[in-house]
Amino acid sequence: MYCWGEGTSGQLGLDLQENDSLVLQPAEVHPLLRHVSLVACGEQHTLFLNEEGKVLSSGRNSKGQLGRQSIPDQKTPARVQGLTGVVSVACGQEHSLALCQSGQVYSWGRGSEGQLGTGAFEAKVTKPRKIQALLTTQIPVIQVACGNFHSLALSKGGAVFSWGQNSLGQLGLGKGTPSQPVPTQVLSLSGVPVSQIAAGGAHSFALSLSGAVYCWGANNAGQLGINRVDEKGRFSPCAVTAVKSLGVSCISCGEAHTAALTKDGSVYTFGDGRFGQLGHNSTANELKPRKVEHINDRASEVACGRYHTLVHVLSSGLLLSFGSGSKGQLGNGDTANQLQPVTVQQTWSSQLPENGEKESPDYQTTKLFAGWNTSFIHTAPPECSESLRQISKIDGHVLQKWLTVPACGTDWKEAKSEITLVFSSSSCLVASFLRNSTDSPPSNVSDPYIVDLQAVRSTLRQLEKKTWISKQIASGLREKLIPNLLSASGLMKLLDIFLILPECEAFHADENIIHLVLPLATAILNLKDSSMETLKKWWSFLEPKFRKKHIHMFKRAVAFILKSGLFEVFKPKMRDVLCILKHFYKANKKATHSVPLSEFYIDEIALHLFLDQDLLNWRLWAKLEDTDETPIIFCRFPFVLNLQVKTNLFYVDACLIKQLHRWETFEAIVKYQMTQGASEIPPKPIFQLRVTRPNLVRDTFRQLNLANDEDLRKELSVEFVGDLEQTAVNKKDFFLHIFDQLIAPDSGMFWYNESNSLMWFPSNPTLAQKRYFLFGILCGLAMYNNNIVHLPFPLAFFKKLVGVKPTLEDLEELDSVLGRSLKCILESDEEDFEVLDLTFTVSWDKKDVHLDPQENEKAVNNANKKQFVSAFVDYVFNKSVAKLFEEFKRGFYKVCNVDILEFFQPEELMGVIVGKEDYDWEKLKQNTLYEGEYHANHANIRLFWEVFDELSTEEKKSFLLFVTGCDRVPILGMNCIKMRISILPHFTEEHFPESLTCHSLLLLPKYSTKERLRTKLIGAINHKRGFWKE
């Protein structure tokens, strides 16, 4: 080892005379220091750690910084008593730290700013004292670093601690935090897999295993590298974004400048440049990292003194220096400042190899150490070189060790401790699953997550097969990680832990929901707004299989609380979970590859929730924000409601409104009677339509046009003029036939596609707009009164009703040829467009349309093809039908509450209004009830089902229409159809079967033969189809 620079007080460990106190070129150290492996430099004192784990010190001792009592300045190195098994040392301006193999930290010297961490502000401590506060975590410390008046420590669990002066934010504990005499965790670095800590005069750095760099503290000269100056300092860690892609491997700090060494051997410097310590041939400050250009080969080491910098070049073995040389600290034989790298005089050339080839048997590792005005270089075989100890993490070796260790003995206990440690720490877990640098991050994310989620899943699945490991994992998560996350999440800079935790099966076990999942939801909601936005972006870019895992975890928590009857006890926590699911729902909608929206449905809500009360609360609290005092209202989270619940809510809402009208009528009648007719005549509680069969559409539209909004939301009653009896059958009869007339191609209301299978609004209507408004009311009445009607609209229609934008896939459904053609255009390249010769003028509904009014003959090319397709889709579904659709929508929402309908997905709303054709005839048979003397094994019933099974599909649909009044299946499936079969008394086998559609009742006479039953049944369903009275 060699040293040079100022030795006035003996800080070089050389017994120099006062008139010869500057060493201008490297000199071999004192014989006592020949087996030293690590050096730490203060202002005028130095610590030397030898290979035996003992510490020696020399230099000034005014504050006890040498660790010896009643001894003035010491020019000859002497041992610091009471320290053994030391693995690292660090020096501040006048204080010292020693880190032992056990993970304990000792301090001594000046403590007036709390930099000793002993709990007191002491001017002078001459003997090493154990820092007790670091022992309370029971996790060993693995690194220490010192600034002038502050100290840092990194634990094996990845926690960064700071103590001492905080006048410029160098502790990273936030504004308003005074100097700290005890170590305090830097919570904002929770979850960061820190690989190195470094401290300058009053600034601090943390380097992550991922290469990310975090900084805090003094920034008066740009020493934080964040492209700005902060005269008052920065009190919380922030990322140095300029080095994110550089692959930083080491950070070193001077008084007010910083140097970063990258994996490719480049050196970047920033901060104070007054003395040339940045190496840019200038004395200017640099506010962001700038590469030192005059280093011609790959650097292997960098060290910053107060105002100078040292760099070791690997291949040539050269040692370079630049910056202040006033005390000889540059080692070039001069005291002049150097603005760019110069070569240190290599007085050791006979002892060091001239190349850095690791294969060489003479290969030596080189370590550089720099103090205020001192410099040291140390070489040793690789096996003797002390490297920074790292935080705990899972790698291939550790994984195999845990999976194969016998479940007893010392090795097993050690493995249990290791597992608990890793799963107690966000930082350790993130460190365990870092994505390889060659892996692609999620596209279109400005700040992508750094963990490999497939590796997370694979590793955890292996570990969780072992019961004892699963228990250790759950213990670490429950007792340490989650409580720490709750206290730190509001400050956290790295969020990857929130992607890892849902992959742990412990979060999916009912017994852990209260202590793991609920506080995790709270911790997420405690994130700062900017962090929350980042996390939501990550969620949207997750692969569906990972996003689904997160969703299921939070769904399970809600279901568990509902099933356990703990709804009121955990109301605030339940709200947190629902809010997280809401964020996931929105993220999923933005995702390129989304999970089905049904994945959000929580079926237990239907079993454990009073829907009418939830609906009333939703109405009552509609204009108020959620607080801890407001009830949890699931209607505010409709995405978790399954189709059955949403459908029930719609009809409960309709029934409540109808009931309200009945009550108003009852009150009015009572008032009318009490006033003996002096008050207004009570309104009817129903909305009655009186129609004639020959003029069904005309009569209906005339009365709908005259009806007020309140009437439309009353119970609907339909009277066919001339009918002797008014029953509920009339409504089904009415809706069936009026829609048959209105949607018929010859009605002129709608445009039909080429196959006549789907209809759309015409772009050139021949009928008045008012007709579409009334048609909208009619559709609203059908849904409001629980009647399925046949509306052969494409899905785009229902999308528009609930505010979802139609897409090219919707156009392909409406017009398959056009849709496929537009898809081909999107897949075409530049050469294809020369052949296609397309323009933005297209033909739709027998009319030429200019999709770009500003440029009628604008050519379609590779650059604007997406614009062309989007404009075409927009024209078909929006612009061409804007007035007609708005009229329809206005009428529809006069009857149905838009706020509840928006609960539905387009596919669901389509199913509720028009039903579906997913027939399960076996289910119909299973659900059938028998009355009177009929039962499942009755001879006539057996004959009936034999005949039914032999019917064609169309005949079965006609039978369904005959019995229920509708030939389509309710959206909730055939289970909703409960057919009853009863005998017709006093009827002979000459009679046809009859039905009461309002009760789904089939009145079936007894028949002697199967053929007679078939004849009569088919005759009945054909004759009575549509319920017309012939």
Automatic annotation (TrEMBL):
Tell me the ranges covered by the HECT domain, including all copies: 708-1027
> Where are the annotated RCC repeats, by residue?
1-52, 53-102, 103-157, 158-210, 211-264, 265-315, 317-381
Identify the keywords attached in UniProt to this record, alphabetized: Repeat, Transferase, Ubl conjugation pathway
Q: Which organism is it from?
A: Lepisosteus oculatus (Spotted gar)
GO molecular function per UniProt: ubiquitin-protein transferase activity
Name of the protein: Probable E3 ubiquitin-protein ligase HERC6
Q: Pfam families annotated for this entry?
A: HECT, WD40_RLD
The record, for CDD domains, names: HECTc (cd00078)
SMART domains, alphabetically? Answer: HECTc (SM00119)
